[in-house]
Amino acid sequence: MSPLAENDSPAVETEKHISVLDHGFVTLIDSMGSDLTVVNSARVSFGKRKTTLSEGDKKLIRYLAEHKHWSPFRHVQFQFHCKVPEFVARQWYKHVVGIAYTDAATVDHAWNEISLRYVDASEFHFYTPDGFRKQSEDNKQASTDDLVKDPDGLLMAEYQNHCQKALDLYHRLLEHGVAREQARGVLPLNIYTEFYWTVSLQALVNFIHLRTHAGAQYEIRLFADALHQLAQDVVPVSFEALMK
Questions:
Q1: Which stretches in the chain have pLDDT values below 50?
Q2: Which residues are catalytic?
């Protein structure tokens, strides 16, 4: 069950909701701004404000993107509700904490996540892949598209059994009075987590560029694709210009 959801009905893909992996999803909760927001943010320097988007405005947007004038794009904001495996969330969160270590113009994030200090892990799902990918021989951090042979499904069964045993141990710790904040330490990284992520258009496109790259992990590439689908219709001109 999704702890942040009102019910446990199956996720349905809509214009603002996309199911990802076996139990994950990305939902566009809200957005602020449009292509015209970008234009007016740029033109305010000259004391001008437009009410309709012209061909000249579209050229301006493309010029801003081409010459890396990022600030007008940061006035467009998106709020997403995401449910992802924990190991994906840790990769995702690097884009938020990274603002302390970089001068890059990708600093526009807000992040609030469900906490196993408050919520019982029994309400969470565990991610089960369709198969196990082989380790890349020439890239230490990457996998290949080739799958490990598991004809009898023994590896997959052991994988799922391990998750259940971890959950059973978690419950035994709680039954003996161990605090949730310590008991959660036995749970594997494939447990799902949920968070709200608010991000500027410019920072979102930076995330999509990096996480749809062939070297990015397969699972996070799927979530980046979902973000792409949900965001592109909000600011089609700006999104296309930035993605180039």
A1: 1, 6-11, 98-102, 105-106
A2: 211
Tens digits of residue pLDDT in 106-125: 457 788 999 999 999 988 99
* CB environment 93-124: b (16+ within 10 A), e (fewer): eebbeeeeeeeebbbbbebeebebeeeebeeb
DSSP per-residue codes, 164-201 = HHHHHHHHHHHHTT--HHHHGGGS-TTBEEEEEEEEEH
- In whole angstroms, what is the distance from residue 24 CA to residue 11 CA? 9
DSSP-assigned states of every residue in 75-109: G-EEEEEEEEEHHHHHHHHHHHHGGGT--SS---E
Instruction: Give per-residue pLDDT as tens, 145-158.
Output: 898 999 999 999 99
* 141, two tokens: 């951090």
